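agent> Task received from the user: take the single chain below, predict its 3D structure, and emit structure tokens. No templates, no multimer pairing.
agent> Plan: (1) validate residues, (2) run structure prediction, (3) serialize to tokens, (4) report one or two observations.
agent> Step 1 OK, no nonstandard residues flagged.
tool_call: predict_structure(input=
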Amino acid sequence: MRVAVSGASGFIGSALVPALREDGHDVVRLVRRSTVHDSDIIPWDPAAGKIEASALAGVDTLIHLSGENIAAGRWNKRRMRRIYDSRVKSSEL
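)
tool_result: status=success, residues=93
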């Protein structure tokens, strides 16, 4: 199965990606900023709503792990909106 993972370099993603590969899955990583141009990286900019749709061809499933850090500050209305948008709006691409 071809799996796209956002947040692949985070706490959960950094353990999940190798486990998926070990199980025989073809994993591509959605990356916001990278100086590396590996064949398994798909650049995206969720804030700007940009992703190369053709790069997702053949992807069977998306595991969306990226988003605003929920422990980085007080929860007020503005912060809750940023948390929501970073998780929900970015997955609508």
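agent> Step 4: summary for the user.
The chain has two helices and five strands.
agent> Done.
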